[in-house]
Amino acid sequence: MKQNHSVKIRFLSFLLLLFSLLILCSCSDSGELCSETPTEPQKDILNVHFLDVGQGDSIFIELPDEKTMLIDAGENYHGEGIKNYIGDCGYSRIDYLVATHPHADHIGSMAYIVRNMDIGSVYMPKAAANTKTYEKLLESISDKGLRVTSAKAGLTIAEESDYTINVVAPVTIDEDNLNNSSAVIKLIYKNNTFLFTGDAEKEELETITADISADVLKVGHHGSTTSTTEEFLDEVKPTYAVISAGEDNSYGHPHKETLDLLEEINCKIYRTDIDKTVVFSSDGKTISVKCGEQSIKKAG
Ligand SMILES: [Zn+2]
Fold it and tell me: Is the pLDDT of residue 3 over 70?
């Protein structure tokens, strides 16, 4: 009897351990994200998809009124993958398209998106790059008869009854360091706030005067130590941090110093190099997170 009892206890502890492991690994135990079958857009739910585009940024946002926003579009081989992902979510239109700054890992596929999707308004900082990628993007915008609105601190992109999208930086343009001309966007949906920093480094982040407290922070410049400081995190006070970086990238992003700072404030960290595409959902009160197996496929 006694032996039986201890076997039972051992079995129960094993089950308990298995259960706790499952909870701990909840991010790799992904639910259905945007699957092959197009899903119906959901009203009153905000979904923020941090797409795994390797070393680069691309964030697709389903707004609570079924409008959409795309912040950046990764390198030039991700266009089709990004378009397909958005299509699988049930959309063919981007209402608000934002290029945070004209570096290839952010605007690489944006010309493809402009040419192949229905586009509402386009926002870019007044910072030009002398590159083919940038020229191609401007060409695609003018070919479609679209105009670029200058993204700068104080600009309101959307102001609806239950959500607002504001640009809080750049305050000034830094022609010598395009990272420091990044459009920094704050999205508020009822009680939940998201802050998207592009590749803004500490010099730019220090110039922000707006309230930047947020539940979810898209960590600046792929987790580089040149961006995140203790003072900045003190202002944002994020519960969740997302780092968009490529596996084994040559820059060593995210830097250990950045991860240490985020851990010090008990921030829950998600990384596209580890968690792949990360999706935050908010009903305006609570936030839930899902991580996907899904990476954006490289193609045209
Ligand atoms: Zn970048």
Answer: no
62 has which bridge partners? Answer: 47, 68
| Ligand 1 center–CA 246 separation, angstroms | 11
Burial class of residue 175 in the structure, from the number of CB atoms within 10 Å of its CB (0-12 exposed, 13-18 middle, 19+ buried):
exposed
CA dist 155 to 30, 73, 111, 190, Å? 36, 21, 24, 19
Among candidate residues 151, 186, 163, the one with its CA nearest the CA of residue 63: 163
pLDDT tens string 133-144: 999 999 999 999
Query: What are the sequence ranges of the domains in the chain?
Result: 31-291
Cα 245 to ligand 1 centre (Å): 9
Ligand 1 centroid distance, CA of 162 (Å) = 31
State in Å: Cα 218 to ligand 1 middle: 12
The architecture of the domain spanning 31-291 is 4-Layer Sandwich (3.60)
Closest CA to 118 of 94, 142, 99, 137: 94
Q: pTM of whole model > 0.85?
A: yes
Going from the Cα of 177 to the center of ligand 1, the distance in angstroms, rounded, reads: 12
